């Protein structure tokens, strides 16, 4: 038997196993990107629960702990479960739709609490008004994206739903990418000024949104013909989140 014949007669069961590995690269990478901010959030929760010493840098959290607790819990849930939504095999199952019902409120809680903290907490020494305004703008876009995505899927517009959920997730993931933009500066140059810190933070969000647009464009190039509806994506007309 020649090599070509052996290739053609090879069991098809081997093909899915090779294909199943790459599809989890994106979710795994997204989860890895959130590990540092999630660890910092867990440390903050432990600090609040354990009655740590109140200092100038953490006094705002002790004075109003509810918003930061909501933000940490909601953001962690949103980022972890949201990362799994990028696995194609899960998007073809009911899990994707059920998880979306958790993700939407978690994402809105994350955005709302983040904006509340930006406005009502005292600004840290390395932050300024421009960074606060940036947080408000992006938090508003994140909340809008989630709401618009939910409205779109209820109308059966899967493409619009998928695009705006991806953009909203990219904004929510900003804290992970900002570690990669801020930390090298701190290590190589030292503590950044307020202006530099704002630029570095903005760069993290910009990178995420740029990648999100690439992902959205690639999805669209794989879709031919008219806009696909939820009924065309799921059996028995059941809408699935994308």
Explain this structure.
- Mean pLDDT is 84; it is low at 1-20 and 227-242.
- The longest helix is centred in the C-terminal third of the chain and has 29 residues, at 194-222.
- Helices cover 76% and strands 0% of the residues.
- The chain has helices spanning 3-9, 14-20, 25-50, 59-63, 65-84, 88-91, 94-120, 129-154, 158-172, 174-188, 194-222, 230-233.
- The protein is globular, with a radius of gyration of 21 Å.
- With 242 residues, it is an all-alpha fold.
**Biggest sheet details:** none
What is the general shape?
globular
Based on the structure, what is the oligomeric state of the protein chains?
Answer: single chain
Global mean pLDDT: 84
**Residues in helices, as a percent range:** over 70%
Termini Cα gap: 45 Å
Structural category is mainly alpha
List low-confidence stretches: 1-20, 227-242
CA-based gyration radius: 21 Å
* Order of SSEs: HHHHHHHHHHHH
Helix tally equals 12
What's the number of extended β-strand segments?
Answer: 0
Approximate strand percentage: under 5%
